[in-house]
């Protein structure tokens, strides 16, 4: 019996294969993500983690397999169309406009909700004015949610690294996503910044009810936050399960965690 509606996973990633000039980046990877789940993908550098994200967001088109988001086959869709369906993403490297303020960067995340044309924008009346006011209200809500009040009018290029990563997270939230892809959200952060980001990630899942797929090298963070974990190596999924199950899996210990378990 086929799952429908709320019973269907938000993401169905089935037997996906991706290669570049004969080199396999993803080899038969399959997983699903529930509608209130924080699903983590771990693995060594070059294991295929970011390639999985690029397939999900439409940057790469695999040679084989099926990828469904909220019941829709997304493999033939362009990245902007997948974003319009409700997939938002952050990146390993900060991709903000350094000369714009926090509020302006957040409002850029509202682009999928803007439908007025240039004449209405120039005149700033009717639908354009209503949409602009709604976008600013949404940005202000994110400022409150991510505790960015102290920096809201600062150019992001002047902000500490950890705060910039938080702004990038906020820009993704401004899209009002149905799914959030977090690519190494605490990379380069100190302990305090990491703890802050971990708290916000949990709040997104628990308070905003947004499912999350997270790629992360900080194993302590993954084990503390994730509902389930998939470990990949050389483009293949070598273990999927709860954090404790994956942490103790011999193939994961050998490939990623070293010869000794983290327990």
Automatic annotation (TrEMBL):
InterPro entries: AAA+_ATPase, ABC_AA/LPS_Transport, ABC_transporter-like_ATP-bd, BCA_ABC_TP_C, P-loop_NTPase. One of its GO terms (cellular component) is plasma membrane. CDD domains: ABC_Mj1267_LivG_branched. Pfam families: ABC_tran, BCA_ABC_TP_C. Residues 11-259 form the ABC transporter domain. PROSITE patterns: ABC_TRANSPORTER_2 (PS50893). Keywords: ATP-binding, Nucleotide-binding, Transport. One of its GO terms (molecular function) is ATP binding. The keyword Membrane does not apply. The keyword ATP-binding applies. This is Amino acid/amide ABC transporter ATP-binding protein 1, HAAT family. PANTHER family: ABC TRANSPORTER ATP-BINDING PROTEIN, CONSERVED COMPONENT OF ABC TRANSPORTER FOR NATURAL AMINO ACIDS-RELATED.
């Amino acid at each position: 019996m086929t799952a429908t509606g709320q019973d269907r996973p938000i993401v169905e990633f089935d037997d996906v294969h991706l290669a570049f000039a004969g080199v396999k980046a993803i080899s038969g990877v399959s997983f699903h993500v529930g509608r209130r789940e924080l699903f983590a993908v771990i693995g060594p550098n070059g294991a295929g983690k970011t390639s999985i994200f690029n397939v999900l967001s439409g940057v790469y088109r695999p040679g084989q397999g099926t990828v469904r988001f909220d019941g829709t086959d997304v493999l033939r869709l362009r990245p902007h169309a997948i974003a319009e369906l409700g997939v938002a993403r952050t990146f390993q490297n900060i991709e903000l406009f350094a000369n714009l303020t926090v509020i302006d960067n957040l409002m850029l995340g509202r682009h999928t909700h803007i439908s007025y044309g240039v004449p209405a924008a120039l005149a700033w009346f009717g639908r354009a004015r209503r949409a602009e006011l709604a976008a600013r209200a949404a940005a202000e809500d994110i400022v409150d949610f991510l505790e960015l009040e102290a920096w809201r009018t600062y150019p992001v290029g002047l902000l500490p690294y950890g705060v910039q990563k938080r702004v990038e997270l906020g820009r993704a939230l401004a899209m009002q996503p149905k799914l959030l892809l977090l690519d190494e959200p605490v990379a380069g952060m100190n302990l305090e910044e990491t703890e802050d980001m971990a708290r916000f990630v949990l709040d997104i899942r628990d308070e905003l009810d947004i499912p999350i797929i997270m790629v992360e090298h900080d194993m302590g963070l993954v084990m503390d936050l994730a509902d389930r974990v998939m470990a990949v190596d050389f483009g293949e999924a070598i273990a999927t399960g709860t954090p404790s199950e994956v942490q103790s899996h011999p193939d994961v210990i050998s490939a990623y965690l070293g010869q000794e378990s983290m327990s």
